[in-house]
Design brief:
This protein is α+β, with helices and mostly antiparallel strands and about 450 residues long. The chain has eleven helices and 20 strands.
């Protein structure tokens, strides 16, 4: 039973990785074939082969370790070169570069395709009006004199219709000045905000949250709220005679009143009722809770074929820019390398998104596909970007890179990648271990 549960949990990860690797290696394969290069092996996975068959000059394999894959080209190493016309190194540096670029390019195309399909099929998003409901203390938003209740009209001269649009602009512009036009009690005002980089989640951050009305949409069975007679559809107007303006305002009052009786004035249809309730202490979060959930509106965005393709391209380009900025910030040590994740983190995310629905899993697939393309284009020996650098040097100097130097840089690249893999896996293990320790030593509320 344990083995079956483990397999079910790991299956989304295997599916995601297999699709990404297949598409990446297919790019190398197709362009190599186009230039007449003999492809000896096409493998999904590493290690011992599980399934294989021969077709033409190529052996197709599914191997035991589903953490990558490879295409084996004829004469791709110094020891194998014979000078035959079908060998990789018999082709020009330009043709070899195109073969190498084809892998990352296919991953970018996959991301565009998946995002376009999501926008064409229709994507359901939470809807919040572009109105500020909470501002974190000492955040960029508070320093820029944004106020609770401000309505966002424009950001960087782009019309803002809902919070999702505003959030996207902030996320894709870390460490940059954003010009925001707001409506404050009927008066228009332009405010400059310098975003920060969110070290935990990535992307830009200004510390503001959307306005959520204090309307109750869910009541947990046997919770303090349920026992007190609170119902779905109730709107909280006052807590202990203090007027409530938003869900965040109400939540703060409840969180700070664990074990204490509080008096609520609620609106239920056309009448107002007074209800007393005692928030129960949540020992994990150390706050009071009464077991209610807010009212969330959703909006389905659906585009035609052309519009979906445009949105797919825009989403992919935004992710490429955000990923490169994140890498640069890692190099400058503006964000901690502890935020990096490896196979365990990807497996956890894949399982979580699969449980949330296929659309979520497809979105994760496209996101990782973009990251895989960019990772492979880094100028590190062994990676696609490293090979491209060698071919560029060969084109400039008119002769191949010294084989001894190539051998040593390749060994360095392998050592660097192994070190990185060990590090990110260690990060994953420490995250899992930390969660387990918290679960063991934190009493269940």
């Amino acid at each position: 039973m344990f083995a079956l549960n483990w397999l079910i949990n790991i299956l989304p990860f295997i599916v995601v990785i297999s699709i990404l690797v297949f598409v990446h290696e297919l790019g190398h394969f197709l362009v190599a074939k186009k230039f007449g290069i003999k492809v000896e092996k096409f493998s999904i996975g590493f290690g011992p082969k599980l399934i294989s068959f021969q077709k033409g000059d190529t052996e197709y394999l599914i191997s035991a370790v589903p953490l990558g894959g490879y295409v084996k080209l004829a004469g791709e190493s110094a020891e194998e070169k014979t000078g035959a016309v079908w060998e990789f190194y018999s082709k020009s540096p330009f043709q070899r570069t195109l073969v190498i670029l084809a892998g990352p390019f296919m991953n970018i195309l996959l991301a565009v395709f998946v995002f376009s399909c999501i926008f064409f099929t229709g994507i359901e998003l939470p809807y919040f009006e572009a109105k500020i409901g909470e501002i974190t203390k000492d955040s960029p938003g508070s320093k820029a004199d944004l106020k609770v209740g401000d309505i966002i009209l424009k950001a960087n001269d782009r019309q803002i219709k809902d919070w999702t649009k505003f959030k996207h602009i902030i996320l894709t512009n870390p460490n940059r000045k954003i010009s925001i036009l707001i409506d404050r009690n009927g008066e228009r005002k332009s405010i400059q905000v310098k975003t920060e980089f969110n070290k935990e989640k990535g992307g830009g951050y200004i510390g503001v949250s959307p306005f959520i009305p204090p309307a109750i949409d869910a009541v947990e069975p046997e919770s303090p709220a349920h026992k007190a007679g609170i119902k779905k559809g109730d709107v909280v107007l006052f807590i202990n005679d203090k007027q409530i303006s938003s869900w965040n305002d109400m939540a703060k009052n409840i969180h700070n009143s664990a074990g204490e009786k509080i008096s609520l004035i609620i609106k239920r249809e056309k009448e107002q009722l007074k209800i007393s309730v005692v928030p129960k202490l949540n020992k994990t979060l150390n706050i009071g809770l009464i077991g209610i959930g807010p009212e969330f509106k959703t909006i389905t965005r659906r585009y035609g074929p052309i519009g979906a393709l445009v949105q797919g391209c825009n989403q992919t380009i935004s992710l490429i820019g955000l990923t490169y900025r994140s890498i640069w910030m890692l190099i400058k040590r503006e964000i901690s390398p502890k935020t990096l994740g490896g196979p365990i983190m990807i497996a956890q995310l894949a399982n979580k998104q699969a449980e949330a629905g296929l659309m979520n899993l497809f979105y994760l697939l496209a996101l990782i596909s973009v990251n895989l393309a960019i990772l492979n284009l880094l100028p590190i020996p062994v990676l696609d970007g490293g090979h491209i650098i060698f071919f560029l040097i060969e084109s400039i100097k008119g002769s191949p890179v010294n084989e001894k130097w190539l051998e040593w840089t390749t060994k360095f690249g392998i050592a660097l990648l192994v070190t990185l893999m060990v590090y990110v896996t260690f990060n994953d293990i420490m995250r899992v271990a930390k969660d387990k320790i918290i679960n063991v030593f934190t009493p269940t509320p």
